[in-house]
Design brief:
The protein contains 8 helices and no strands. By secondary structure, it is mostly helical. Helices cover 65% and strands 0% of the residues. The chain has one domain: AhpD-like (Up-down Bundle). The chain is globular, with a radius of gyration of 16 Å. It comes from Amycolatopsis magusensis. InterPro entries: AhpD-like (IPR029032), AhpD_core (IPR004675), CMD-like (IPR003779). This is AhpD family alkylhydroperoxidase. Pfam families: CMD (PF02627).
Length: 161
């Protein structure tokens, strides 16, 4: 399978991508735990059917020490006992922030309250921005049909410079 369009070979898309990666670095270096960030990105990517992002974020999470069991259970997090209450709040937040059209109301008051129990203002800001970023990345990759499977952890590090 080949992508229908190479975003990195296009001047406009490459410029955008460089700035997009720069914005993502702000979140990566925030006070929001890296594990939490990867769980959120994986769950949103599952919902959006973005194989490219799933490939990237599951491999990055595994390289950072995330267990295979937890990675395998993200899609069934409600039935799994391997996630903390804070992580469960983030997974619900990721789902509701990704499925905006399903309810027409965005993140529920219940989920918002659960997130606020576990995260400070800077972390909540990072969560909001991270949901927006991963959904944008998912959409770009799904639209151009970027294939999954070839990602290696760290392969895009040079793009962030």
């Amino acid at each position: 399978m080949e992508a229908r369009f190479d975003l990195m070979a296009n001047e406009v898309a490459a410029k955008f991508s460089k700035r997009f990666i720069g914005a993502a670095l702000v979140l990566e270096h925030s006070a929001l735990p890296a594990t939490t960030q990867e769980l959120l990105k994986i769950r949103a990517s599952q919902l959006n059917g973005c194989g490219f992002c799933l490939d990237m974020h599951t491999k990055d999470a595994a390289a950072a020490g995330e267990s295979a069991v937890r990675l395998a259970l993200i899609a069934a997090w409600r039935e799994a006992t391997v996630f903390t209450e804070a992580e469960r709040a983030v997974l619900a937040f990721a789902e509701e922030g990704t499925r905006l059209a399903d309810t027409g109301r965005g993140v529920s008051d219940e989920t918002w309250a659960r997130v606020r129990e576990h995260f400070d203002d800077d972390q909540v800001a990072a969560l909001v921005c991270l949901v927006a970023m991963i959904n944008a990345a998912n959409r770009m990759n799904v639209i151009v049909r970027n294939p999954a499977g070839a990602y290696e952890p760290g392969m895009f590090a040079a793009l962030s410079r």
